[in-house]
Design brief:
The termini are far apart. This protein has 11 helices and 10 strands. A 7-stranded mixed beta sheet has the order 6-2-1-7-8-10-9. A 3-stranded antiparallel beta sheet has the order 3-5-4. It is α/β, with parallel strands linked by helices and 286 residues long.
Length: 286
């Protein structure tokens, strides 16, 4: 465990127990005693901002019934912005996107009449690289020009969603983007690049808490849901609940894509394992 920062307020075991449970309940993010130092370091500035002397005082502030719900929600939003991990880039885990384009999209095109709808949800989309990557894969499949294509990107971070709507990215976002795609779908903006309007129009972004919010806001069922590198931060109970809710949002025969470090083999799930080309994904029964 890293050594404490000199002069920092120490997160004692009692306060850690209270704060970690509060954060897990609110966001599903799990901190253990081994990762308590992350909580301690990342929340230091919030204590300084409020002039608090201890993490216990901060917990009492967050749970103070006299505080308005607006102020409390605003503080929780600040906490999520600080704690959430948003490491992503275009065409991440590209072998799954290849299977999506080369296998799933032709299947859907073949089974449905021309001009039908196609719906994809990127759950936990961060700053938008994943839904825009999905849009590019759909465009390059060449199969859906006359279809009603709906791509939803959702996240709980307001900052990340603002970046997604702007669609402007620095060099690190393109670490796995070939030059041809970079030139076709992005325009330069003084050392950064913005996604083309034709791709941006395919994607809609909204703020959503995957643990608590009503998914009816999404407006219908999906042919594919990408929820990659999200459930790894949840405990087993929240993970199972979320998977069940995601399954409810899949159309019959729809597919769920998880990150390669994530698996449903250790829990009950309404989804079955399916082969999509060489990729193992999860499918809702027809």
């Amino acid at each position: 465990m890293p050594s404490p920062i000199s002069g920092a307020i120490v997160l004692d075991p009692q306060a850690f127990d209270l704060l970690s449970k509060l954060i897990a309940t609110r966001f599903g993010l799990v901190y253990t005693t081994e990762t308590a130092y992350l909580l301690e370091r990342r929340l230091q500035n919030r204590l300084s901002l409020h002039g608090l002397a201890s993490f216990l005082d901060y917990y009492l502030l967050l749970t103070d019934p006299k505080q308005s719900s607006t102020h409390r929600d605003r503080e929780f939003q600040e906490i999520f912005e600080i704690l959430s991990t948003r490491e992503t880039y275009f065409f991440r885990e590209s072998y799954q996107l290849d299977a999506f384009r080369e296998v799933l999209l032709p299947q859907l095109h073949h089974k449905r009449p021309r001009g039908s709808s196609l719906s994809v949800w990127s759950a936990g989309c961060a700053s938008g690289e994943e839904p825009y990557s999905i849009a590019v894969e759909i465009i390059e499949s060449g199969l859906f020009d006359s279809w009603n294509v709906r791509i939803i990107g959702s996240d709980l971070s307001s900052q990340a969603l603002h970046a997604a709507v702007q669609g402007i990215y620095g060099p690190s976002a393109f670490r796995q983007t070939d030059p041809g795609r970079h030139n076709r779908y992005f325009r330069p903006l003084t050392g950064r690049w913005q996604i083309n309007d034709s791709v941006r129009r395919m994607c809609t972004f909204l703020r959503l808490n995957l643990i608590h919010d009503d998914f009816s806001i999404l407006g219908g069922l999906f042919d594919a849901i990408f929820c990659r590198n999200v459930i790894i931060y949840f405990d087993r109970a929240d993970r199972n609940r979320l998977i069940a809710r995601l399954a409810d949002q899949l159309a019959p025969g729809g597919y769920l894509f998880l990150g390669h470090a994530e698996s449903l083999l250790d829990g009950n799930t309404p989804l079955g394992i399916a082969h999509l080309g060489r990729e193992l994904v999860y499918r809702k029964p027809t």
